[in-house]
Amino acid sequence: MPSFRSAQAQARHAISRKVSLGQGRHDNQNDGRIHSVGTARGYEQALRGFVEYIQNNHQGDLSSVAVQEAQQYLADRAGMVAQKTLDLDRQAIQMHLSIQLDVVKSEIETCLSTRSYTAVQIERITSAQSEHNSLATQIAHEAGLRAHELLTLHPAGDRQASTHRQWSTDRFTGRTGQLYTVKGKGGLVREVMLSDRLAANLEGKRLAKPKQITDRGVRYTQHYDIGGGRAWSQSFSAASKRELGFSNGAHGLRHSYVQERMEELQRNSMRYDKAKGTVAQEVGHFAKDTTEAYLR
């Protein structure tokens, strides 16, 4: 029987041949490369599971896999994992094989429930955190930020938003404050707005000299002494459990932001569909359908 490298070694090698870090995803779309550490990590995990399947069922490896085996793997996985995981598996295999595979629907019913927090709940959580993390929570809620985006906050006048996007002038309708920029998924730089009060608190935490920080394997240049990334996310969840008895995760703050902004924009007489598109840009994903998922 032939001897093959471990599933982990094969997956890591396959991913290493496709990684091009340091190049923004949005500026290099459809080039067949991986431009994000997080994507590389997810694809490697997905390919590892695929290799284990091949080794157990076909006595082969990634260098000899056939399209039919890939499609059968996805069909088998459909009864075991949710759609999001199944799609990640498909995308990772497609990248490795440089082909298009058929979309397979998961047989697992995903239970959808709101992940948002009320304003009162958020206030209780912030009161249970250190000042360092409490300010980060307030900012994440008010601007709809992802955990790592807190580490990338920068005054808008010092960094321009990505120019390959057409930004709507309806962003931040009904709100006043100070503009900052953050760098989100795929290297997309977008503007966010903070109230004058929160902006003043943030400026009080400006570092005399920016510092380098690594979070989840990615290096960031941080300009403010506030929480962010995994450490802040863990702090948020722990405080939520202490105060509320449960945690929807720090990402729940983005759900709160989207729901609150949709209500604000519609109170300002903006049509529902236009409001969805506006909020999509404010949180940095541009997809109206994704916005809909935050409204549940």
Regarding quaternary structure, how should these chains be classified? single chain
- CATH topology name of the largest domain, in short, is hpI Integrase, Chain A
CATH architecture call of the largest domain: Orthogonal Bundle
Biggest β-sheet description:
3 strands, antiparallel
Task: Using the CA coordinates, give the radius of gyration.
Answer: 21 Å
- Our count of domains comes out at 2
The run of helices and strands is HHHHHHEEEHEEHHHH
**Biggest sheet strand line-up:** 1-2-3
* Terminal Cα span: 52 Å
**Alpha-beta classification:** mainly alpha
CATH C-level class of the largest domain is Mainly Alpha
Q: Which percent range describes the beta-strand content?
A: 5-15%
What helical percentage do the residues reach?
A: 40-55%
The pLDDT mean sits at 87
* Unreliable runs: 23-29
> In one word, what is the shape?
globular
Query: If helices are DSSP runs of H or I spanning 4 or more residues, what is the number of helices?
Result: 11
* CATH superfamily caption of the largest domain: Intergrase catalytic core
Number of strands: 5
